[in-house]
């Protein structure tokens, strides 16, 4: 790879890390803002509604524009698209200061909405750059590396972000101030990166795929059903992460304070990192012996990384090792077939959530945390299955699937309403329904009569 391209790739990889970090910070903000404004659960879930709702609004506007004038990014350039996304993200972070100063919940939600719009632009613009910064035959490898750092950001955020908000900057008298300095720093970092991306020279990239009018892509059942599957997946994953701190804080579970419970979030989100590394290796051309040995090494390394970050003793996290072993078995049974593996992972997720609902103590806690590692391959598998066979409608289908991220806005809100009525533990019936639908979709696609192309198969190792 060209040395200058390598430097650019490092900068973009740092960008992937940052938006993963900031996305997971929402799980810290939810209990913080719930206490600050004495909110009900459904009101606290407006945090995710505002943030992920921005993904839907931004993607919808982008989709409409693409039908009328062609791909907007093609017209302004991917480099300018990244700069715009970074500036918008910076503005969203800076708005946390006046929101905290005036202690207005609506102001916080507005800041999160703008931050979400910025991330939407980054999602649209940054991913293609990774694929063109070097030889095409190693594009998948570069994407996996950058996305792995995104997962690293979601793993570190609960620990570092929780420390900043619940410990370092938290005071009893001016609790609203706890988010001022952290988000000013985040905003400053995005602004600096925007300046860097404006000044550096990036290769030109033009997407010459056909622009089609109408929504003909929805004629394909694997896409229309897959859109709901993405909705269910993002909604279920975000809902569990949003409620995890409150769940661990229940007396019948662990009764832990927020400052301590936030450490366990690292295992939930870190599970995706473990599963994605394993998923990428499972797609390699290595012999089964070398493949399984490499998967074991990657899982061990990822676990030790999470263990070193989270301040939890080894004897407490032992059950998590059993969940990693279960994940390995699920990969072996799935045999890297997208539909089959998706169905197996969704089935295990349903079982784990059910255990969390109907048991107590650390057994229930680790069962719910364990869902994180089985979320790992769901986005790429659903996405790959959803766009398979679309031909000229592939670009349009991809836009529709990105719009389905709206699930992250609505599903936590629904669970919040139910939690206010029947309690937090039983409210996890909502994610159960989500994963049951994903189970159906995986089973349905596993029976479709078309061949999986090699390039589609490679996409299974790439996360959203």
Protein architecture, described:
There is one protein chain. The protein is mainly alpha-helical and 464 residues long. It folds into two domains: 1-201, MFS general substrate transporter like domains (Growth Hormone, Chain: A, Up-down Bundle), CATH 1.20.1250.20; 214-464, Up-down Bundle (Growth Hormone, Chain: A). Helix content is 77%, strand content 0%. Helix 1 runs parallel beside helix 8. It starts with a helix and ends in a 6-residue tail after the last helix. Residues 451-464 have low confidence and may be disordered. InterPro entries: MFS, MFS_dom, MFS_trans_sf, MFS_TsgA-like. It is a multi-pass membrane protein.
* N-to-C CA distance: 24 Å
Strand content: under 5%
The total of helices stands at 21
Low-confidence stretches: 451-464
Q: List the helices and strands in order.
A: HHHHHHHHHHHHHHHHHHHHH
Query: Using only CA atoms, what is the Rg?
Result: 21 Å
CATH topology of the largest domain: Growth Hormone, Chain: A
CATH superfamily of the largest domain: MFS general substrate transporter like domains
Helix content: over 70%
Largest sheet: none
Q: Mean pLDDT, rounded to whole units? A: 85
The CATH architecture of the largest domain comes to: Up-down Bundle
Transmembrane segments: 7-29, 41-65, 77-99, 105-127, 148-169, 181-200, 220-245, 265-283, 292-310, 316-334, 341-358, 364-387, 399-418, 424-444
GO molecular function, one term: transmembrane transporter activity
Membrane topology: Multi-pass membrane protein
Pfam families: MFS_1
């Amino acid at each position: 790879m060209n040395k200058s391209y390598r430097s650019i790739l490092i900068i973009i990889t740092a960008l992937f890390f940052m938006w993963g970090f900031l996305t997971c910070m929402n799980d810290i903000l939810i209990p913080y803002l719930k206490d600050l404004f004495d909110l009900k659960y459904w009101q606290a879930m407006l945090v995710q509604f505002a943030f992920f709702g921005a993904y839907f609004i931004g993607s919808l506007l982008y989709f409409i524009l693409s039908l009328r004038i062609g791909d907007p990014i093609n017209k302004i350039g991917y480099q300018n698209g990244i700069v715009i996304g970074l500036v918008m993200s910076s503005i969203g972070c800076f708005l946390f200061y006046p929101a905290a100063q005036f202690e207005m919940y609506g102001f916080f939600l507005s800041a999160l909405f703008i931050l979400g719009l910025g991330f939407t632009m980054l999602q649209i613009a940054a991913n293609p750059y990774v694929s063109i910064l070097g030889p095409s035959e190693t594009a998948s490898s570069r994407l996996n590396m950058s996305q792995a750092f995104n997962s690293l950001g979601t793993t570190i955020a609960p620990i570092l972000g929780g420390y900043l908000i619940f410990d370092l900057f938290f005071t009893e008298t001016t609790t609203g101030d706890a988010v001022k300095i952290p988000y000013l720093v985040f905003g400053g970092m995005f602004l600096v990166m925007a300046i860097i991306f404006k000044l550096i020279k990036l290769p030109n990239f033009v997407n010459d795929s056909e622009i089609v009018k109408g929504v003909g892509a929805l004629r394909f059942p694997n896409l229309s059903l897959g859109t709901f599957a993405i909705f269910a997946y993002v909604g279920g994953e975000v809902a569990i992460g949003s409620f995890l701190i409150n769940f661990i804080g229940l007396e019948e579970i662990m009764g832990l304070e927020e400052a301590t419970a936030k450490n366990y979030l690292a295992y939930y989100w870190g599970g995706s990192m473990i599963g994605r590394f394993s998923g990428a290796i499972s797609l390699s051309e290595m012999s089964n012996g070398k493949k399984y040995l490499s998967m074991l090494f990657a899982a061990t390394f990822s676990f030790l990384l999470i263990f070193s970050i989270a301040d939890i003793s080894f004897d407490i996290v032992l059950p998590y090792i059993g969940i990693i072993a279960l994940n390995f078995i699920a990969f072996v049974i799935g045999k890297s077939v997208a539909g089959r593996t998706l169905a197996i992972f969704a089935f295990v997720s349903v079982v784990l959530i059910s255990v969390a609902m109907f048991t107590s103590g650390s057994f229930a806690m680790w069962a719910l945390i364990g869902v994180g590692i089985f979320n790992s391959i769901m986005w790429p598998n659903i996405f790959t299955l959803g766009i398979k066979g679309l031909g000229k409608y592939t670009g349009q289908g991809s836009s529709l699937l990105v719009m389905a991220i709206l699930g992250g806005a609505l599903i936590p809100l629904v669970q919040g309403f139910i939690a206010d009525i029947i309690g937090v533990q039983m409210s996890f019936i909502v994610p159960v329904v989500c994963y049951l639908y994903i189970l159906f979709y995986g089973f349905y696609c596993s029976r479709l009569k078309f061949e999986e192309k090699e390039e589609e198969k490679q996409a299974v190792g790439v996360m959203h």
